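Handout, page 2. Input:
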Amino acid sequence: MATGRNHRPATRSRGIPEATVARLPLYLRALTALSERSVPTVSSEELASAAGVNSAKLRKDFSYLGSYGTRGVGYDVEYLVYQISRELGLTQDWPVVIVGIGNLGAALANYGGFASRGFRVAALIDADPSMTDKQVAGISVRHVDELETIIHTNGVSIGVITTPGGAAQQVCDRLVAAGITSILNFAPTVLQVPEGVDVRKVDLSIELQILAFHEQRKAAEDLSRETAAPRELRVPAERRGEQGPDGDVPAVMPA
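Output:
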């Protein structure tokens, strides 16, 4: 099986938009779930709903792959799984090194989904001498002094940074100098990299803050709806039976 050091996905050379590339993993996840249930075909509407996009966007995305489905039948699930996996480079072996084996780094090392998606954790690296040779997920932790040697020896393609924020840039610089051009950054900082190096940032605190914003907005909207209710609905219950001067019950009580 080819290693990722010498083979890179063809998406850029084929002119597939970055927005489409970002949605391909969503389609693949939905298709994999269908495949596991032995579903042979799927319509664009069903797949779009499962992936959380609209069907017109899905059909446009698949047109970049040269896949148009069959009218009245839909898309072949197994073929699409293969096609998207190939386009994303997941039919190859991508060695990954994780730098920073704290709680998050150890959790990632123990994640069982890497191997099934084409990623192999080749090495775990930490700067703490007390961590050296400790077993995490069946892999011996190596000291950061060996980083460059490990990358070259294992043909590492992708670096994952899970260090504290203050150490992340230095680790990033060393990864880049050793030839790494793809980095997944979990550290709470923005990395500076040269042109040609791709960085994907995952910041759980930012995602939680965004969710907090939406929760606050929903609460404000609920309060606004309550205060905008018709005045007669807000008349105290004990006053609703009072009669007006002509013996009728006023629709709206005076302020």
